[in-house]
Description:
The complex is a heterodimer of chains A (351) and B (607).
Chain A: H1 38-53, E1 60-64, H2 68-71, E2 81-84, H3 90-100, E3 105-111, H4 112-116, H5 120-129, E4 133-139, E5 142-143, E6 149-150, H6 173-180, E7 184-189, H7 193-205, E8 209-215, H8 231-237, E9 238-247, E10 263-266, E11 272-277, H9 287-299, E12 303-310, H10 317-321, H11 340-346
Parallel strand pairs in A: 1-2, 1-3, 3-4, 4-8, 7-8, 9-12
Antiparallel strand pairs in A: 5-6, 7-12, 9-11, 10-11
Chain B: E1 8-9, E2 11-19, H1 24-37, E3 42-47, E4 56-64, E5 75-80, H2 86-92, E6 93-102, E7 117-121, H3 123-130, H4 134-153, H5 157-168, H6 172-192, E8 199-200, E9 210-214, H7 215-226, E10 230-233, H8 240-253, E11 265-268, H9 272-285, E12 289-293, H10 295-311, E13 315-321, H11 338-342, E14 352-354, H12 359-376, E15 379-385, H13 386-390, E16 392-396, H14 414-420, E17 449-451, H15 465-481, E18 490-492, E19 499-504, H16 508-520, E20 525-530, E21 532-533, H17 537-545, E22 549-553, H18 559-567, E23 575-579, H19 588-598
Parallel strand pairs in B: 1-8, 2-5, 5-6, 6-7, 10-11, 10-12, 12-13, 13-15, 14-15, 19-20, 22-23
Antiparallel strand pairs in B: 2-4, 3-4, 9-16, 14-21, 18-20
Helix pairs in contact in B: 1-4, 1-5, 3-4, 3-6, 4-6, 5-6, 7-8, 7-12, 9-10, 16-19
The complex binds thiamine diphosphate, iron/sulfur cluster and magnesium ion.
Amino acid sequence: MASPGKPPVVHPALERNALGLTLRDYEGSMSTLCAGCGHDSVTAAIVRAFWELSTPPHRIAKLSGIGCSSKTPTYFVSGAHGFNSAHGRMPAIATGANAADRELAYIGISGDGDSLSIGLGQMVHAIRRNVDLLYVLENNGVYGLTKGQFSASADVGSKSKRGEPNPMAPIDPVTLALALGATFVARGFSGDKAQLVPILKAGIAHRGFALVDVVSPCVTFNDHEGSTKSYVHTRRHQVRAVLADFVPPAREITAAVGDGEATRVAMHDGSVVRFVAVPQNYDPTDRRAVFAYLQDQRGKGVIPTGLLFLDEGTPDLHEMSATIDVPLARVPYEKLCPGSRELERLQEEFR
Amino acid sequence: MHHEARTRVNDFALKLANVNGTGSASANGLLLQAIFRMGIPVSGKNLFPSNIQGLPTWYEIRVSRDGRTARALDYDLIVAMNARTYEQDIRELRPGGYLLYDSTWPLDTALLRADVRFLGIPLARLCNAAFSDPRERILMKNVAYAGALAALLDADMTVVERLLEERYGHRKGLRESNSCALRIGYDYAIANLECPLPFRLEKMDGNRDSILIDGNTATALGCLYAGATVAAWYPITPATSIMDAFKGFCGKYRRDPETGRNRYCILQAEDEMASIGMVIGAGWMGARAFTSTAGPGISLMNELLGLAYYAEIPAVVIDVQRVGPSTGMPTRTQQSDVLKCAYASHGDTKHVLLFPADPKECFDFAVTAFDLAERFQTPVILMSDLDIGMNDWVVPRLRWDDAYRPDRGRVLGTEDLARLGTFFRYHPEDEDHVAARTLPGIDPKGAFFTRGSGHDKFGAYTETPDDYREVMERLALKHRAAARSVPAPVIVRRPGASVGVVSMGSCDPAIREALDELARRGLAADYMRVRGFPFGEEVEAFLEEHEIVPVVEMNRDAQLRSLLTLETRVPKEKLRSVLAYGGFPLSARTVVDGVLSRVEVPRGVPR
Ligand SMILES: Cc1ncc(C[n+]2csc(CCOP(=O)(O)OP(=O)(O)O)c2C)c(N)n1
Ligand code: SF4
Ligand SMILES: [Mg+2]
């Protein structure tokens, strides 16, 4: 087993993580998405993130709704427990699963149709409950699986493949989540794996709901001239506004990236997120300031990416519910049933 | 004026007419409980509006030494506290009945009926004199009429006083005002009215082994005892009090003694699509999880019920049925979700249903529901209704067997997986056509991918007709196999029976009473109450045995009859519908009239 912290030595495919597992062990079955689909790059980043974190595959629960994006859980960590559920309903299913077993690492994969239209209510409420879940929204501005209709994230004026401009204002999951009080808000780009992997790792370590909105172009229906969710448009307008780097627990923090003035946020599991490159005076823990910054950037037509906001102080679903540490699904029955004598006694109240 | 020749003891019906929001519920409940404590079988039916304040509301109390608990339609005494319903209330009294009213204001003489005795008590005036707070004056009028009734019906005042002490002993002011108001009514009645009336109460020993409980509380207790740890819901009448009660019980019994933290998690969802989703997620993880709802919620849960059916995930749903369609009459009772629940969701789906008839069965069947859901890895819907769920019923004490252990169904642990070597989610199957499952996070060998999309018996994605069909056929067989495990029907036979009545759920007391009445009139009928779906062989046999089968149910479209014709071999013509679906609990008279109109009545049977 390679000890953590050592520089890579062998061929990357054979490199082993703390569990002795290779990247291969975190892959899934072959993707059936279109060649070049942004979602496949997100999948690769997820594989990398879990591998780097050395999460035991069977301790991962991967869930999704319906859509091209929601198909991807089969393409990563085949040793995890998966649940490809129903359109827009993954947040509730993940909430129930997390309520029953708080110990697993939860990752939910969704699309912009899945999250911002049919499932908007469920996503919003999972944010409110601060369910301990990494929520990856693979955002391509269209409904890929139903062949290219505009989704609610399509920008005003963005053109469909047939050239019609979208007239309605988009729902931006990032500002929405911020406004709702989300405790972890990030935006990535499927074409920028170097930035995405640490974000995903931090999202997994985050105790609470971690929204990662990933611009993930649909090469078949929304990658043309005039689309604001194309590779070209995104590359041109993306700004790596906030660069974060994730340092796992029990690893010495070395000043490998960026300057020494980096903002550090300690995560609940002992890991640390270091904000290594941020705009001047940017405070990733100041919700109002982040919000204002994003509004400002939007006015300039810029797509700021990075781990934009982080709050480790808000209780998650289990803390709000004051549940015990033992997963509820694993509590022995003897500790749940009050027994016959108590039933007899209790019934005196019904006389 | 008509006078009763004989005194009737412990056999009469009262109706209390009030305005919603004036606090009558606690006075009415006090009366009911006092009668229960006197050892007399009794039932209370709350006929209330979908409103917080201002609309008419009625409470009916039926006192029956023989244990008749169905709604009675012949009222011996009506307490008319709502001037706006005087006319209707007076009309509903049986000839020779009594009307108690607030004589602070004169009664419109146009309302008088020669065959009814009017008993006036100046409740408002007396309470205004005794209490100064305006709200208290209104509330205490109710307690005052309860006091008057205690005098008129010869209730045991020490029992009533003790109840007041139990209820309000810890709040001195409230205890005193209640006691004072009770006395005001009692003393006035003794001094001014003929007490007791020709129908009255007398202590007996009919309730020694009974409790007075509503179905929703009993259901919540069942969920507690079954070991449910995750509950998700969205508020809706008449199901809300299930979660209220569950929360109360959990607060009492599910706190970790050391940390004070909870061994349960109740999620108030954003809607019913979410609440069933949460239940499915928790069930997938291996927790016992449930949701409680009513018809509108069932409609919203349809999509995910199909997912749970197809992906084979245990889920318990409690449907406290109310009047539909749409919002319908939310505070009135019906059995109109039967077909919707039996086949909930798109595609070929079939669910396991349980039909409790009273709070005791709510308790027992709630536990059964969890066992069946896990054994058959499928949703199980407990079909309660508003009458059972929200009214107080006298039922035998609930019993618990400490040897009970949850039936978790076929769940593979680490050792099983090591022994088996390979694991496929939907293969092989057991004699009930159930395949073993694993729980997420337990063992690397148990990992599998759950999907609502087409899958083969190994759990892999498929679009191949044969592979898809193989799973669907097993699911049909599995559903059929559950017929052996749902509660058997209750069958009551009578010598010489020519017809066999079939019914379900809360129709039971009215049917039992009606069948006695029909037998008295010369029409003997057997009776089968179905308690579960899919239907088993006993249901088939009963239908086969009888040439004429009246099916009594509380919906317009004869849903139980439809389900029987679809799911058994019975010829449709045999089944004759008796339908009552106006929203009030069923009464024996409705059943008697209904059955008589649906069968060829033998000569000499008076209609
Ligand atoms: C209840 C329901 N309505 C409609 C659909 C059809 N449907 C499947 S995927 C989809 C849109 C998916 O879009 P998105 O979430 O953006 O995913 P993408 O394919 O773009 O990754 C729709 C409308 C469905 N599966 N279920
Ligand atoms: S249609 Fe679009 S979103 Fe779907 S797989 Fe193809 S490229 Fe990806
Ligand atoms: Mg999309």
